[in-house]
Amino acid sequence: MVIAPTLDGGAGQGGPLSQRAFAVSKMVSDLHDKWDAETVEAIARRLSDRPGPLMLILREVNERFGYVPRESVPIIARALNLSRAEVHGVVTFYHDFRHEPPGRHTVRICRAESCQAMGAVALADHAARRLGIGFGETTADGNFTLEPVYCLGNCAASPAMMLDGNPHGRVTAQRFDRLIESLRENAR
Amino acid sequence: MSAEAATVYVPRDSGALSLGADAVAEAIAAEARARGREVRIVRNGSRGMYWLEPMVEVASPAGRLAYGPIATADVASLFAADFLSGGPHLLKLGSPEEIPYLKSQTRLTFARVGITDPVSLDDYVAHGGYRGLRRALAMAGDQIVEEMAASGLRGRGGAGFPAGIKWRTTLQTAADQKYIVCNADEGDSGTFADRMIMEGDPFVLIEGMTIAAIAVGATRGYIYLRSEYPHALISLNAALDAARRAGYLGNDILGSDKAFDIEVRLGAGAYICGEETAMLESLEGKRGMVRFKPPLPAIAGLFGKPTVVNNVVTLASVPIIFDRGAVFYNALGMGRSRGTLTIQLAGNVKRRGLIEVPFGVTLGEIVNGYGGGTATGRPIRAVQVGGPLGAYFPISLFDTPLDYEAFAAHKGLVGHGGIVVFDDTVDMARMARWAFEFCAIESCGKCTPCRIGSTRGVEILDRIIANGRDRKAEFALLGDLCETLTHGSLCALGGLTPLPVLSAIRHFPGDFRLESGDLSGTN
């Protein structure tokens, strides 16, 4: 018999790491729920007793819906007895918290020094041309959102990118195209 | 009829995954099944030789044998060559420990990374884990702190502040609650040592934090982990669960009556949260705005309580110090830089990876010796040491030893030990502009020099690059701006951004089309 690779350290969840990793911080918007006030209230209520709860709440809202809807700000503010301005201030401070729903797939390309040394500027240009959008934008068909990231810690395999939370290293223009094509085909 | 189960190691390190390690593991499992061979696949950390990843290892009576880099297409031929018994193959590397890159290293903090199953507590203990904690539990708080001070360990996050002094301050501050906060917001480009530890040996970090907690009397710990590291989160949480179940965390650690537990908190993509006071603000659920110091976090940190804030590598170096003793650790290194430095070699270089060696090795030995020149085959032009806030060094300074003071003397910094190599196609004026651009993107906005100065810096460099007319005035303005940033910023982001900028101008004046007299304003 074959003992399949387990990656959960005996916690009994199994499954390929690359799939489970994105339960962590999922960016595939097929998995995102449609916004509703009750869910935000439930998240805020459940986490409000934790020390320093606002970041925890915003992270969960962002992961659940793919972004932090403007309408959720007063709900969270009320639950934590903060002003809306205070919550808005935190939402807008952090790059991860989106203000609009993302596309079905999120492409994050590293634009920091190590990747620049290995051709990341050309890769970023290629990605933008190929997808027909700029950084921070979503394609008209709602398939792809292109985001910059400043280091994925994968500098030993620069240029690096993340596609729906899965890391890819030594990315060439050809490899980028193949990855994008494989997702387009899955979408059909 | 199948032979006894062979053990195969395929890394789970996200760098290896980015090169296809998951698919290789699945292909090995499938091929074994098809051939009726029993195989136990262990997902280890990475040995840190990334040009060989995915590197697969098999256990043999003579020790482990490595093959790499392996693609899924190689798996059938590996089985045909009977790699499970160490058979010859074009990609066979032999014993990984005999590969010169690894053999010449002094792996202390990284002693287990790549060897053990990262989330197996049994594996951790079998490879010397938790010996340091057991020793520390028999010591009083001030004895632990003195041992740390004697080791000479300085903060590996970048600032190089002696860890023992930080711990002593927190120990001596009376409070009803104290915290240990691990800074795992490894945002510097070219660095990945924290990630490798958390993915490849999370227990060593947990043990280090536990020793710190016992030393200063803290009962709660937080690991502030950047959200770009989802795989580290999985390893850390699995290890924390295992440590709790076995009594290494909780209300009565190993029957000592001492309590400590750890929670991982995710950041949200803000580089500034790697600055310790911004990180504390973020942990409290606020904007990651830098705090004024004093008060020092060691006296009034998280939620206003005394808090030890240390980087991942710093805390992960604590167990070996308590296992082998401060004298052993302190015997390594040079000058006031004691022990080992975990160097991360990245960018345009042939052999990229993790190199743990005692302080004192020269920049050239790392870049040329370990790195083997550029990946593109072109000449090396510049290396940036210490992340986006570190200086650019030319080849003429390759004899500089990796030592905090030696780098400071060249107006640079060792930082978190990241080295990024550039070939001769790099435009250093563009890199100087990028330093300001990055500062503008990531500035928290609290202090004016950083918030406004970074954007003004981009504008000045745009004019210099466009070769505007009054160049002498532009360089004078740039010099003034850098001086304002250096002396007027609240934290290292604004304060150190001039380092890459001025080093680029100083060492690569041709890229700025500098003429004599242009530079009278900069230092």
Strand order of the largest sheet of chain A: 3-2-4-5
What's the CATH class label of the largest domain in chain A? Alpha Beta
Largest sheet of chain B: 5 strands, mixed
Count structural domains of chain A.
2
Residue-averaged pLDDT of chain B: 96
CATH architecture of the largest domain in chain A: 3-Layer(aba) Sandwich
List the helices and strands and how they pair.
The complex is a heterodimer of chains A (188) and B (523).
Chain A: E1 2-3, H1 17-24, H2 37-47, H3 53-65, H4 72-80, H5 84-93, E2 105-110, H6 113-117, H7 120-131, E3 144-149, E4 161-163, E5 166-168, H8 173-187
Parallel strand pairs in A: 2-3
Antiparallel strand pairs in A: 2-4, 4-5
Helix pairs in contact in A: 2-3, 2-4, 4-5
Chain B: E1 6-9, H1 14-17, H2 21-35, E2 39-42, E3 56-60, E4 63-67, H3 75-80, E5 92-94, H4 100-103, H5 121-126, H6 131-137, H7 141-151, H8 163-172, E6 179-184, H9 193-200, H10 202-216, E7 220-225, H11 230-245, E8 261-266, H12 276-283, E9 307-311, H13 312-316, H14 318-324, H15 326-330, E10 333-334, E11 337-338, E12 340-347, E13 353-358, H16 363-370, E14 380-385, E15 392-393, H17 404-409, E16 418-423, H18 428-442, H19 448-465, H20 471-488, H21 492-496, H22 498-507
Parallel strand pairs in B: 1-2, 6-7, 6-9, 7-8, 12-16
Antiparallel strand pairs in B: 1-3, 3-4, 4-5, 10-11, 12-13, 14-15, 14-16
Brief account:
With 188 residues, chain A is an alpha+beta fold.
3D structure, described in words:
The complex is a heterodimer of chains A (188) and B (523). Chain A is an alpha+beta fold and 188 residues long. Chain A has 2 domains: 29-93, Arc Repressor Mutant, subunit A, CATH 1.10.10; 105-187, Glutaredoxin (3-Layer(aba) Sandwich). Chain A is 44% helix and 11% strand. Chain A is built from 8 helices and 5 strands. Chain A has helices at 17-24, 37-47, 53-65, 72-80, 84-93, 113-117, 120-131, 173-187, and strands at 2-3, 105-110, 144-149, 161-163, 166-168. Chain A starts with a strand and ends with a helix. The model of chain A is unreliable at 1-29 (pLDDT under 50). Chain B is α/β, with parallel strands linked by helices and 523 residues long. Chain B folds into 4 domains: 6-99, Glutaredoxin (3-Layer(aba) Sandwich), CATH 3.40.30; 121-329, NADH-ubiquinone oxidoreductase 51kDa subunit (Rossmann fold); 332-423, Ubiquitin-like (UB roll), CATH 3.10.20.600; 428-521, NADH-ubiquinone oxidoreductase 51kDa subunit, iron-sulphur binding domain (de novo design (two linked rop proteins), Up-down Bundle). Chain B has helices at residues 14-17, 21-35, 75-80, 100-103, 121-126, 131-137, 141-151, 163-172, 193-200, 202-216, 230-245, 276-283, 312-316, 318-324, 326-330, 363-370, 404-409, 428-442, 448-465, 471-488, 492-496, 498-507, and strands at 6-9, 39-42, 56-60, 63-67, 92-94, 179-184, 220-225, 261-266, 307-311, 333-334, 337-338, 340-347, 353-358, 380-385, 392-393, 418-423. In chain B, helix 11 (230-245) links the parallel strand 7 (220-225) and strand 8. In chain B, helix 18 (428-442) runs antiparallel to helix 19 and helix 19 packs antiparallel against helix 20 (471-488). The radius of gyration of chain B is 24 Å and the shape is globular. The model of chain B has no long low-confidence stretch (mean pLDDT 96).
